[in-house]
Design a protein that fits this description.
Helices cover 72% and strands 0% of the residues. By secondary structure, it is mostly helical. Helix 5 runs parallel beside helix 9. About 3% of the residues have low confidence.
């Protein structure tokens, strides 16, 4: 939620909206593939969503969060957490393997030659590896997170009155975005990097606890359907990004770098996206537009992913 900054959206320009729009289309298709193939195998189509955008575009964190929601009394989808985390793990590997080699073919077509980079080009604040901080900044970050969590619980209760089942974190997600833009508008330092670090630490702990409680034996009977769905998802991403997305983004070097990044986070996580782009830019030169459009557009897609998944779940239920 804290990543949905209006000022950053303005800074990135229309390219962010292009990436965001494409991401929403792709994650919807991922859910269609997952639920559709699951139905063909005669299993709960909602379980197929765990091999859709829940685990792929969403990554391990979303897979664990939605898995707990799906296994709850509202939906009663047994094995959603185990299936989602297994698919997310596969996606992390696949997103890293596919991105670089696929775009290497496009770079060869562009006759792009490797360059010698003696010094790293300036990188936007979103993707810097180091920064300076202090205890007061982390206290500010913790307070902002606490406010988002508290007000988010209230908002979630209000949203529940609509009769639509939302994941438990949806209210806090929305309030995180609201608070981020309020403090920016007021000119208050909002400890963005510190919030990000708190998120990474929390996600690591959350995944460890979620994986300790997995019922891995439920995967035995679902192995073949899961494998078939994952193969279909990989083929879709390869064909879509190579023949459609690259051309939509301009058929140039920036387009190749952005496409590699898109493959990373559409199959795994933003870490995959950054790794894919860095692999290319370290050999062929920096791509400033990609380092703005992909992180911001990709992180904003998390919000829409939660909305679309919720829509699919309630429709299929």
């Amino acid at each position: 939620g804290f990543s949905a900054s209006i000022s950053l959206i303005k800074k990135g320009g229309k390219q962010i909206f292009v990436i965001l729009f494409i991401a929403v289309i792709v994650l919807s298709i991922q859910n269609g593939i997952g639920s559709g193939i699951a139905s063909l195998f005669g299993i709960d189509p909602r379980l197929g969503l765990s091999v859709g955008s829940i685990s792929l575009m969403g990554g391990p964190g979303t897979a664990a969060a939605f898995g707990a929601t799906m296994e709850g009394p509202e939906y009663g989808v047994e094995g959603a957490s185990a299936v989602g985390l297994a698919a997310a793990t596969f996606g992390l590997v696949a997103g890293s393997i596919i991105g670089g080699p696929l775009m290497r073919r496009r770079l060869n077509q562009l006759n792009r030659t490797e360059v010698s980079i003696t010094k790293e080009a300036p990188v936007d604040d979103l993707v810097q590896d180091t920064f300076k901080t202090n205890a007061s900044n982390f206290i500010m970050a913790a307070m902002l997170i606490a406010i988002a969590l508290g007000t988010g619980v209230v908002l979630s209760n209000i949203m529940a009155m609509t009769g639509i089942t939302f994941p438990t974190y949806m209210g806090s997600l929305i309030m995180g975005a609201v608070i981020r833009n309020i403090v920016e508008a007021m000119g208050i330092y909002h400890s963005n990097k510190e919030v990000e670090i708190c998120g990474e630490i929390s996600l690591t702990l959350f995944l460890a606890m979620a994986m300790m409680g997995l019922k891995l034996w439920v995967l035995a009977d679902l192995a073949i359907p899961i494998i078939v769905i994952l193969i279909a998802q990989v083929l879709f991403i390869i064909l879509f990004t190579y023949y459609i997305l690259y051309n939509m983004l301009g058929k140039n070097y920036e387009a190749a770098v952005q496409t590699a990044g898109f493959i990373g986070y559409s199959m795994g996580s933003m870490s995959n996206a950054m790794a894919n782009m860095q692999t290319i830019t370290r050999k062929y030169g920096f791509a400033p537009a990609a380092y703005l459009a992909i992180p911001i557009g990709g992180m904003m897609s998390d919000f829409f992913n939660a909305v679309v998944i919720t829509g699919f779940l309630n429709f299929l239920t």
